[in-house]
Design goal:
The complex is a heterodimer of chains A (about 350) and B (about 425).
Chain A: H1 2-33, H2 37-47, H3 51-68, H4 70-79, H5 81-100, H6 107-137, H7 166-190, H8 193-224, H9 227-234, H10 239-254, H11 259-281, E1 284-286, E2 296-297, H12 298-301, H13 305-332
Antiparallel strand pairs in A: 1-2
Helix pairs in contact in A: 1-2, 1-3, 1-6, 1-7, 1-11, 3-4, 3-13, 5-6, 6-7, 7-8, 7-11, 9-11, 10-11
Chain B: H1 4-20, H2 23-42, H3 46-79, H4 82-116, H5 118-152, E1 157-160, E2 163-166, H6 169-173, H7 176-206, H8 210-246, H9 248-255, E3 266-273, E4 278-285, H10 288-294, H11 316-346, H12 353-361, H13 364-381, E5 384-386, E6 390-391, H14 402-433
Antiparallel strand pairs in B: 1-2, 3-4, 5-6
Helix pairs in contact in B: 1-3, 1-14, 2-3, 2-5, 2-7, 3-4, 3-14, 4-5, 5-7, 7-8, 7-12, 7-13, 8-9, 8-11, 9-13, 11-13
The chains are: A mainly alpha (about 350), B mainly alpha (about 425).
């Protein structure tokens, strides 16, 4: 039962990164691919109707982690106290920037929120990568089952490290490049005219960079947490996930001119990468850098068996509904995004 | 100042109080917008359609602030209250996750369509999207209340290895406390929205824009009267009886009853003096508290001194004041909406300048009453975090320091001050512009 919920939480967070990831990518890129107010509104018309629903995947994933693995939620969230509060502030800035920007005609007002959206989106992309880096590297969980991580110490991955070290910063940079690349293909699909042209030009530069940064990230992860690859190799059921990531990357690199297919390849790349990583990490939720015995795992953090079974009943009912809503909003908003819609 | 517990409580109390200013309007306004949309479609009423469009614009701004201030609430269970999360996550995590899965997806998906999709959806499709938004907002309210109801009156749980687990899912989700707390809270939310709608319409009428205001004025006053009546009876009455039954010590503190009384009095005014254990300068109505709490004038109401000192709520004065502010305002709301409804029925409301002024100036007070009501619920629950099962002091994150929480509380304070200014500025512009004629 706890294995199922491990997969469910990983799937929800991966969906979050795929969906909100293109919002962050589009937000980080929009200053560069949209040069005037009309073009900026075209970008906002593409992400405006969906960003909030996309963010719900984070909330719902977090709450699912909360009820299925209370100990993981408690230790992880309290240990990253300050970084998580900063995440909240960035998410607030992002949401407000999208929603309030077009209420006033004033160019200064709009320039302010445009810059805010760019900064918040880019930093959130870095944060997501660094967060993954922290989960892979592990945290100083001790016998008390809790930890408190400082922002940074000596940038080494062993010993008394901080939230930021060379490895987590590297993954942050990788996530920034990957989500910008993802966002560029989303904008190429949803927009037309100069925005689409510039987004495609950005994609041509960004995707080779994703491949290069991805290779470095894979090598670095091999140094920091080699068990992941050993587990992956010993679990044939997880191989298709890695294959999905590789095919997605190839598709995003090669499928020029087929906007929807390129974007879906990009989604497959992100989803496959995260799913394969989770499959390699399983059953660990949060590794301890002090002693592997203190790691939080799917078994030692799971809620009671009865609760998990009851949860399955409503989760199996609710998630298809959530997927339907997401599909419905994309269907209703099909066709190119227009400035008049924001 | 160096006690982390104080800062954790202040941070949660401040961020939840600020956050709830927005959902209380969203939920009530979603209902009112839905009623406008139905009227517009069935009666082909252009004024109702314009009113719906106007209030949905306000709802959009309000919703955005509600979302960005709401996300921190769920995070804080883990960041600030990790021992509580670990202890009770197996139970309350369920309702929080259900809120995400069943309500937030629905609400956020359809908000996008309500705001951006009126042209693409057509009148019927847009009405359906507003109905879905309304459903999402009201379902979300239920799951949050069910979570709070568990903390007020645990039900359906079992304690295993020092942690709470689900034993009876039905008893947990359909906790009797949750049902009355929900109805009481939702009718309060409709009061806030009605007073905002009626108050803004009164402002337009006073400006000489009576034609633009008519639909909103009528809707605000009628919805206000109905919700104010429901607030008192049956929802307030039943909620009070539940408190009397399950949290008698909270009831004693709310009413400032220190020693057990037969024919217990209801204090209209008074100040609790906790040190000397008496109520100063009281103006009381004898017997009424016994009747309200237990249904008969002669029943003994237990006083604070009947309970061990370590079970008293830790801020009796604030609890007492909050309770009296809530009840006092609720009573005044009934009088105001009755008077306005009478004038509306006679067709003279648009000319009653005094009453219009009162309606306009009344806009902030349902927010005060809602906040006071939640202070009653949450202070009345003290010293417990989960009533009878975990004390508040035992629920904090052990490794998070007082200074860190003080720092981020100040950060939230600054951010929320900025959000308040932006909100008032943008909604003020919308109100000045109005629905048009």
């Amino acid at each position: 039962m706890s294995a199922f919920w491990y997969g469910a939480v990983a799937a929800m967070f991966a969906t979050y990164v795929v969906l909100d990831g293109f919002d962050f990518g589009a937000g980080a890129l929009h200053l560069f691919v949209a040069r005037n107010d009309r073009e900026r509104r075209e970008v906002l018309a593409a992400i405006g109707p969906v960003w909030d629903g996309n963010e719900v995947w984070l909330i719902a994933g977090g709450a699912t982690l909360f009820f299925a693995f209370p100990r993981a939620y408690a230790a992880g969230f309290s240990g990253f106290y300050l970084p998580l509060i900063v995440v909240l502030w960035l998410l607030a800035l992002r949401g407000i920037a999208i929603e309030l920007r077009s209420h006033l005609e004033d160019p200064l007002w709009r320039a302010f929120w445009d810059a805010g959206l760019c900064a918040a989106s880019a930093l959130m992309a870095v944060v997501l990568g660094a967060a993954l880096g922290n989960v892979l590297r592990g945290v100083p969980l001790d016998a008390s089952g809790s930890f408190m991580a400082p922002w940074f110490t000596n940038f080494r991955t062993r010993g008394a490290g901080g939230v930021l070290d060379w490895y987590t910063v590297l993954l942050g940079v990788f996530a920034l490049v990957a989500l910008c690349a993802h966002g560029s293909l989303f904008l190429a699909w949803r927009n037309e005219g100069p925005v689409r042209e510039r987004a495609l030009r950005a994609a041509r530069v960004l995707w080779p960079a994703v491949a290069a940064a991805g290779a470095v990230a894979i090598a670095a992860t091999k140094l920091v947490r080699p068990e992941i690859y050993r587990s992956l190799l010993s679990r044939p059921w997880a191989w298709p996930l890695a294959l999905l990531a590789a095919l997605g990357l190839l598709g995003a690199l090669a499928l020029r001119g087929r906007d929807l297919m390129s974007f879906l390849s990009s989604c497959a790349f992100l989803a496959g990468t995260l799913a394969a990583t989770a499959a390699g990490l399983f059953p660990v939720l949060l590794p301890s850098t002090v002693d592997a015995a203190y790691s939080v795992t799917a078994q030692n953090a799971a809620a009671g068996e009865h609760g998990l079974r009851v949860g399955l009943a409503w989760w199996a009912l609710g998630m298809p509904l959530a997927v339907c809503y997401t599909a419905y909003v994309f269907r209703t908003m099909r066709g190119k995004a227009r400035a008049e819609d924001h | 100042m160096t006690d982390p517990l104080f800062w954790h409580r202040l941070q949660f109390g401040f961020t939840i109080t600020f956050h709830y200013l927005f959902p209380q309007l969203t939920m009530g306004l979603a209902l009112i917008a839905l009623l406008f949309k139905i009227r517009a479609l069935r009666k082909d009423d252009a004024e109702a359609a314009a009113a719906a469009r106007f209030w949905l614009r306000v709802l959009g701004i309000n919703f955005a602030v509600g979302v960005v201030t709401g996300v921190p609430m769920e995070f804080q269970f883990g960041t600030n209250w990790s021992r509580f999360s670990e202890f009770s996550g197996g139970v309350i995590g369920q309702t929080l996750a259900m809120e995400g899965v069943f309500a937030f997806f629905l609400e956020s998906t359809f908000l996008g369509l309500v705001i951006y999709g009126e042209k693409k959806l057509g009148p019927r499709g847009h009405l359906a999207a507003v109905a879905a938004l309304f459903a999402g907002a009201w379902i979300s309210g239920y799951f949050i209340i069910a979570t709070n109801a568990f903390m007020q009156h645990p039900s359906g749980h079992v304690l295993e290895d020092g942690k709470l687990q689900i034993a009876d899912f039905g008893a947990f989700v359909f906790n009797r406390w949750a049902i009355w707390e929900y109805l009481h809270n939702m009718s309060a939310s409709v009061i806030t929205a009605s007073f905002v709608v009626a108050g803004v319409a009164a402002f337009w009428t006073l400006q000489g824009r009576a034609r633009e205001a008519a639909a909103s004025l009528r809707m605000g006053v009628v919805a206000g009267l109905v919700s104010c009546a429901l607030q008192l009876f049956p929802t307030g009455d039943r909620q009070g009886k539940l408190v009397a039954e399950h949290q008698p010590v909270a009831l004693a503190a709310m009413e400032g009853v220190f020693r057990a009384e037969k024919f217990a009095h209801l204090a209209i005014i008074g100040q609790p003096d906790v040190v000397n254990q008496r109520l100063e300068n009281p103006i009381v109505v004898p017997g009424v508290l016994s009747f309200l709490a237990y249904g008969s004038f002669g029943t003994t109401v237990r006083g604070l001194t009947d309970f061990p000192r370590d079970q008293w709520p830790d801020n009796i004065e604030l609890l007492y004041y909050a309770y009296h502010v809530m009840v006092g305002l609720g009573t005044l709301f009934i009088l105001l909406t009755l008077a306005a409804a009478f004038r509306l029925w006679r067709g003279t409301l648009a000319q009653s300048r005094g009453l219009l002024w009162l309606l306009m100036l009344a806009i902030p007070f349902p927010y005060l009453a809602n906040t006071a009501g939640w202070l009653v619920a949450e202070l009345g629950r003290q010293p417990w975090l989960v009533y009878g099962l975990m004390r508040t002091a035992a629920g904090t994150s052990p490794r998070v320091s007082a200074g860190d929480v003080a720092f981020t509380t100040l950060g939230f304070g600054g951010l929320y001050a900025l959000l308040s200014i932006l909100f008032l500025f943008l909604v003020g512009r919308e109100i000045a512009r109005g629905p048009g004629t």
